[in-house]
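Q: I have 247 residues here and want to know how they pack in 3D. Can you give me a structure?
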Amino acid sequence: MTHTYNITGMTCSGCQAKVQTVLSKVKGVQNVKIDLSKGEASIDMEHHIPTSELQSALKDYPKYQLFENGHQNHDSVTTNAEETRSWFETYKPILLIFGYILATTILIEVVSGAFDWIRWMGHFMAGFFLVFSFFKLLNLRGFAESYSTYDIVAKIWPGWGYVYAFVELALGIAFLTGFNPLLTNAVTFVVMTVSIIGVLQSVLNKRKIKCACLGALFNLPMSTITIIEDALMILMSLTMLTTLLNA
């Protein structure tokens, strides 16, 4: 017998292959055919396999959700609800984080007695990388999987997603402690420039995928907000590099 199911969360051939491999290992499954464009899976089975059993097989990959045709699961309802949310409601987490970092770093400059733009940018970037790496490390595997759907390096080497979170952590510590500013800003410029390429490609191609900037904790859509976020880090690191080289 053959049953067809809807599967959400698949964005590339890598996702297709992973889902097909996982479902093929379920006892009683004879063959699995995935239609990536339709988000469907046709499964040949020796006997009826409960949908819950197939869903359980994908439990280690929460971004893939399987449900029967004509039945919408909770995640699908959530997705539709998200599409109707206001711009502020959608981006509230990242706006609050930026607001907290901005306010804290400005306060540091105020109490120091003199506002130093270079020092402020160093503190802002330290806060940015430390906070954003924290959210990525809460679910490192989830972040790496999401990141590999659009980052140009992670698409080739999925392990880069795991490394990237620790690169952000290291950069945050480096900016906070003032470690080798020239090297720190150079690495930041290169890493963020490479990162923004995949973001630009996804936004320009209007791909509806999840942004991994805050890890797998928040379901933020890829948009111009992500571009601004990366571009800001590139601009700050470039400004600090130029200042250091001209000093």
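Q: Anything worth noting?
A: The beta strands are 2-8, 29-35, 40-45, 65-68, 210-211, 220-221. The chain has a mean pLDDT of 85.
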